[in-house]
Specification:
This protein is mainly β and 306 residues long. The chain has two helices and 26 strands.
Length: 306
């Protein structure tokens, strides 16, 4: 079915229950339900100060109530209530070089909550119904936050941090513990190395996370490492599973990994560490409950694995 919409980037299609939300030059559009609201975010241009150009991006809460409209490698983000079209949260991490290094840190949590960057080196958990900040504190944190990916249950958060000078330092944060004890979200590091700060991440289960890397110490080139976050040891200890040579946007469904690479959509069995199928020529950019979607030339292409 054709849709008269054009995405601002390949990061601007996100799932809704039974639908897809697109971020376009005109605003937010649900492909089946129609126009939702104007785009609430202004463009960012830092000229020669920027380490890379901001990229428009879009995220949706699992229940479809909220959308986060952000600029990856930029400072600004907003959260919109899709029922009313109203902006309920505005964000600014307020630092050019840090912002233009990493995607905007934001992830939805259960219970109408969001965790997001509120300063250059600060994350907060915010109640979207009331606007209350649930993590009030004095910030004393020397690391910078990158892409955030929450586990399905919302307990765990994979934070793609970077530390000077400059190393990639993905860390797992126990959100429940953070809210209980307060302070900054210290987390447990998986590794320290020089690599980009927007590597794909997918949660295979409540405590099992898959993360892609480059320049890996376990294999040369691209690949996926899988960790049980409830049994983490010291950084740079071997992961529980390895999938060498795999690269591209990825999602998890029913214990399997699905990767959109140059050849098409690949299916991987992490337990047996093997590829079980490929759909050539199909390169999705969004996923919902086993349905993968690509919007190209105004045409939505989708594939269901169930």
């Amino acid at each position: 079915m054709p849709w008269d919409v054009e995405l601002l980037s390949d990061r601007c299609l996100a799932p809704l229950p039974g639908d897809w939300l697109a971020r376009t030059a005109d605003g937010l559009v649900a492909l089946n339900a129609g126009f939702v609201c104007p785009d609430p975010l202004i463009a960012e241009d830092y000229g020669d100060e920027a380490w890379r150009e901001p990229i428009p991006a879009l995220h949706t809460s699992p229940d479809g109530r909220y959308a986060a409209v952000v600029n990856d490698y930029g400072n600004f983000g907003t959260v919109v209530d899709l029922l009313s079209g109203e902006v309920v949260l505005r964000l600014d991490r307020d630092h050019v070089h840090t912002a233009t290094t990493t995607p905007f840190p934001i992830a939805f949590l259960p219970g109408d909550r969001v965790v997001a960057a509120t300063e250059v080196n600060r994350l907060d958990v915010i109640d979207l119904r009331t606007g209350a900040v649930l993590t009030e504190r004095e910030t004393d944190f020397s690391e910078y936050h990158g892409r955030l990916t929450a586990s399905p249950c919302g307990r765990w958060l994979l934070d793609h941090r970077w530390v000077w000078h400059p190393d990639g330092a993905p860390a797992v944060v126990d959100v429940d513990e953070w809210l209980r004890i307060g302070g900054d979200p210290q987390g447990t590091f998986l590794a320290f190395r020089d690599y980009p700060w927007d590597q794909p991440v997918a949660w295979l289960g409540p405590g099992i996370v898959a993360i892609q890397r480059t320049e890996d110490r376990f294999f040369e080139g691209d690949g996926i490492e899988i960790y049980n976050v409830e049994q983490l040891g010291e950084p740079d200890e071997p992961p529980m599973a390895l999938l060498p040579g795999v690269t591209g946007p990825m999602w998890a469904h029913d214990g399997a990994l699905y990767v959109s690479d140059e050849a098409g959509l690949e299916g991987w069995d992490p337990e047996r560490e093997l590829r079980f199928g490929v759909l050539e020529g199909f390169r999705p950019i969004a996923h919902r409950d086993g349905v993968f979607a690509e919007l190209r030339g105004g045409q939505l292409y989708s594939f269901s694995v169930d």
